[in-house]
């Protein structure tokens, strides 16, 4: 359900991804096949184009002190290529059909803040957005804003945590919160509204004290359904979920020529991980995008189900939850 609530002024239905936006000014806007050998078996990774996926919609709450222009959604791009893992077996004839490139584009998006940052930037761990972590613009006030946000988080007795915090040069604060009350970590609309109301009130106090500028806008949202999985701390939490994994293949099978690491990726399931050896063991995830490569309606065969990939923690470029929605 997509919805927006103006907690101080009005409520209306909207059709874009959830972001809670608050501002204290009268003018504000929101911008939106290398071969891998393991043991005695050889498996081919077939690359195929994979549609970019915008973050799935979830609850949104907007609160403003004064009238402002309606916010626009911030597109969150997922990696566009998924490697298909298939069996190199003379007894099997598997059909590999390429998917067509397809971009999912919201024609209504308004990139009015291009002078501050690019929405097309690739997600990475610690980017202050869907990749989590903290990213400060280097303004005179952003450390104070972060300090206040951390105090607000503590006021909820540890139930609401800051997943990502980011400040922009146009006096905007973007916060993504998660909850420890459920395994997915997704906060409810009530959680987002409560955090927004409390944080906005503290920001108003800081404005009066001249600790932050008077035109700061606030956006609060959840990490999203395809949130980044932090290594290793989130592995046990999301071990039952399919994950998109991008990794350096040559860290596992070094090139004889000594060339630099090459990236590979795929949609896998976590079989196990070892904190002592700092390695993960992956299997092929039983999801549609993998099953379709073996023929329509055909499940993964035995050898594919038993296929394994071991990756050191430091070879993992990006791991995020994978959604078929």
UniProtKB/TrEMBL annotation:
The DUF7912 domain, residue ranges: 228-322
Q: Which UniProt keywords apply?
A: Cytoplasm, Ribosome biogenesis
What biological processes does GO assign it? Answer: ribosomal small subunit biogenesis
Q: Which InterPro entries match?
A: DUF7912 (IPR057234), Ribosome_maturation_RimP (IPR003728), RimP_N (IPR028989), RimP_N_sf (IPR035956)
Instruction: State the Pfam families in the record.
Output: DUF7912, RimP_N
Q: Which residues form the Ribosome maturation factor RimP N-terminal domain?
A: 170-226
PANTHER family under this entry? Answer: OS04G0438300 PROTEIN, OSJNBA0006B20.18 PROTEIN
Name of the featured protein: Ribosome maturation factor RimP N-terminal domain-containing protein
């Amino acid at each position: 359900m997509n919805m927006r609530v103006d907690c101080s002024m009005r409520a209306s239905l909207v059709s874009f991804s959830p972001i809670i936006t608050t501002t204290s000014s009268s003018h504000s806007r929101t911008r939106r096949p290398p071969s891998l050998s393991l043991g005695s078996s050889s498996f081919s990774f077939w690359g195929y184009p994979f549609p970019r996926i915008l973050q799935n919609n979830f609850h949104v709450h907007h609160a403003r002190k004064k009238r402002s222009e309606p916010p626009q959604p911030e597109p969150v791009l997922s990696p566009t290529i998924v490697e298909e893992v298939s069996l190199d077996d003379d007894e099997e004839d598997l059909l590999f059909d390429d998917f067509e490139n397809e971009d999912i584009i919201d024609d209504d998006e308004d990139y009015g803040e291009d002078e501050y940052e690019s929405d097309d930037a690739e997600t990475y761990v610690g980017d202050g957005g869907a990749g989590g972590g903290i990213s400060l613009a280097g303004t005179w006030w952003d450390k104070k804003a972060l300090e206040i946000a951390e105090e607000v988080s503590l006021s909820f007795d540890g139930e609401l945590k800051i997943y990502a915090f980011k400040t922009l040069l146009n006096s905007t604060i973007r916060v993504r919160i998660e909850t420890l009350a459920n395994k997915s970590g997704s906060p409810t609309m009530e959680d987002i509204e409560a955090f927004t109301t409390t944080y906005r009130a503290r920001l108003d106090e800081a404005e009066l004290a001249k600790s932050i500028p008077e035109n700061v806008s606030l956006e609060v949202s959840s990490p999203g359904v395809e949130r980044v999985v932090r290594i290793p701390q989130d592995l046990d939490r999301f071990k039952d979920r399919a994950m998109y994994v991008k990794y350096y293949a040559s860290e596992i099978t070094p090139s004889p020529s000594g060339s630099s690491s090459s990236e590979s990726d795929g949609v896998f399931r976590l079989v196990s991980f070892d904190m002592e050896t700092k390695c993960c063991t992956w299997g092929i995830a039983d999801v549609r995008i993998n099953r379709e490569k073996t023929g329509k309606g055909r499940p993964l065969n035995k050898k594919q189900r038993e296929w394994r990939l071991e990756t050191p923690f430091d070879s993992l470029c990006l791991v995020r939850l994978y959604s078929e929605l």
